[in-house]
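Please check both lines for our workbook:

___
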Amino acid sequence: MFDTVLVANRGEIAVRVIRTLRSLGVRSVAVFSDADAGARHVREADTAVRIGPAPAAESYLSAQRLIAAAARAGAQAVHPGYGFLAENAAFATACEDAGLVFVGPPASAIDLMGDKIRAKETVRAAGVPVVPGSSGSGLTDAELADAAREIGMPVLLKPSAGGGGKGMRLVREEAALPEEIAAARREARASFGDDTLLVERWIDRPRHIEIQVLADGHGHVIHLGERECSLQRRHQKIVEEAPSVLLDEATRAAMGEAAVQAARSCHYRGAGTVEFIVPGGDPSAYYFMEMNTRLQVEHPVTELITGLDLVEWQLRVAAGERLPYEQKDIVLTGHAVEARLCAEDPARGFLPSGGTVTLLREPAGDGVRTDSGLTEGTEVGSLYDPMLAKVIAYGPDRPTALRKLRAALARTVTLGVQTNAGFLRRLLAHPAVVAGELDTGLVEREADGLIPAEVPEEVYEAAAAVRVEALRPAGAGTSTGTGTGTGVASGSDSGSGWVDPFSVPSGWRLGGTPKPLSFPLRVTEPVEHVPRGAHTVTGDEVSVVLDGVLHTFHRAGDWLGRDGDAWHVRDHDPVAASLTRGAHAGADSLTAPMPGTVTVVKVAVGDEVSAGQSLLVVEAMKMEHVISAPHAGTVSELDVTAGTTVAMDQVLAVVTPAGAPEAPTAEEEA
């Protein structure tokens, strides 16, 4: 076994790998960009090396800097984690050339399986069924469109390099092919440095099932069962479980053997995953999609049902050990489900979010595991992937595992950054999910019903309670009271029990009828809220009794959280809001839906545009968002260029409606 291993990754990924290194007594070396100098993975490692500025291209994606860091720290091996350079054949080769052991498969296997076109041809030759699609590499836009028409709509555009759903586009109409191909190329180039695409037949209501394989350097390959990954949004997995309720023992064995053959076909070594698309109505008709030549985000569910530490076996295999297991030794026990906690706002169309984690409560306990890179004070920006943590639950059966995971998500608190925890909890309670009736389109179809339409009244009540307490002078009373202020204060003068009415935030007036306090608040729309219930404010908790029901929230600053949901409740000042919006407020303004970077600008001031026309593209956390014209008109203002960093709600451009009077010039105003 190695003495020292450098972990070439960040966040929860690095923390996860460091945990196993510690258990094996191996010294861990973390790397960090300037944005991560105080990150959890840096603090948990035995030592850490700075590798550059915040942009990933100048730090985590720089093979030269990573190898130099390994040399400085005296590492014998490099574990790439999952993501960044984990599936980069050039990095694996560079490690070997530098005398470092790359904890992963041979560069040749990464290169072969990283090219989805060559991968399909290779596994097809090994007898593994593949999805019908285009053939050949380096197809032009026109050739891709022709292949799509030949296959028949709908089709799926996929980057040949990379994975994780990035750059994938489902196209249902032929007319949309040119723009979708261009967008897929942009995303693929940004994510993987390669814009080569292929096109495949789209299988309606498919299930995504993958097989975990493990191979040593002595020709021995086994599989560790399957994971069901059908709960996805925008082709990104959000919930995974093992085993799948869809497969019977015969199908599981057949798919497992196909995965083993796929691994053998590229002379694989280490932990890897073979992914299949499976028609829900006929599980026996499975098709190879791709092979991920790395550890997967969802590997914990396999660890929990097999009892194996996959990171440990990656390290042991990389150190030259033989696998001591035969296929018959692998027994799947119980059920495990994982949910990915991401920095995104379901109420805003799942756009990436950001901010500082001001209050953190992560679930633990019997059958609950949290893999996380968070600490209080963590800054979540727009430069890296939005996944913050994973919450995993294990039980003797699927209903128990689901129940434990829902409860764990309800206990998850990440205030200061909006996450999808509450959405995931409701998704896991959906009747189709509970019944195991899954497909890759289920989340998209049901998402609207899993997002509360309105902010609950008790949220405003709790926010108002915090503001009532802030009005109370020090020593003027306890932290328990009612909305009207009656009995709120118990301050006294020299123990006499006298209450100073001026110290009570109750709206009391000398010689007049008390005027109820009201607070202008805003989560989405402005609300004038008059507190009417009893409340208790203690430390980082707020409790309110409304209509006889007790509601308890976690609280940090202007953030409130409960059952995985969080609300940023701010004071609302109409005058300040009007000034912030500026002279071009309303439907004419195009604002940034998320903090990020403008990557594409398609128009200039003076251009005439049609309603719905794509004008700009903003990217954050490896996700593109197209900014379209709200109506037909003329671009009268353009405040950004490609490469501009923007804040959420920042004005990007203004489109003056067709037929609207032109704004007067300075000379005309004079």
Remarks:
- The chain is about 25% helix and 30% strand.
- The chain has a mean pLDDT of 90.
- Residues 249-265 form the longest helix (17 residues).
- The radius of gyration is 28 Å.
